[in-house]
Amino acid sequence: MSKNTNTLGVLGLGSRSTLYYLHALNKAFHAEEQGYSTCPLILYNINFNEINPYLPNQFQNLLPKLSVYLQQIENFPISHLLLPNITIHEAIDKLETTLKIIHPLHLTITFLKQHNMKQVVVFGSKYTMTSTYLSNYFSSEGIQTTSPSKEDVEFIDTLRQKIYLNTETLADINIYNTLVANYTKKTLVLIACTELSILKHPTHVLDMAKLQIKEAIKQIKKH
Length: 223
Hints:
Helix content is 49%, strand content 13%. By secondary structure, it is an alpha/beta fold. The protein folds into 2 domains: 8-102 and 211-222, Rossmann fold (3-Layer(aba) Sandwich); 105-207, Rossmann fold, CATH 3.40.50.
């Protein structure tokens, strides 16, 4: 099928994070187009339980499943593909595809360089905050990533899981907001987890999900 279209592809993963992206895409598109406009997209919703047990880096089991999904999506009449999960991109990077991925790491690097920012503290899953995937990727571009304290890493990761299950409390959110406020006193906080993106953040944090959404709208309007 022709890729010359203004339709976005979205791979449906975790229910709450996917719904967050869909709502944000429609809101952003409507803000630009007005009227009764909604974001033109094709959602390919999979059973997230088929891959979640292998995230983030059990590649032997994860890559074959992802490869099948991508091959199926390649037949869709879309210009770009958005994946509403940050950690999955490490696996996506290991696969060959003709799809144009709206990649959160690429977008983040571009943003940081444009604003001459050379250091961030990462809020995400425990894996994202402590593995070398993000740190190596960013350091190769001259940007330093740091992690929260060990105690804060554990809290943030537990909160992330609660958000996925829709069980977070107001007390959890208040503690989290205090952490964000404390860390932003020293450096830019980078939100690198779609569950955390669901929470409201001050404008002086950088959210990978919002960068993806902004780029998706840009590409839709370009084609």
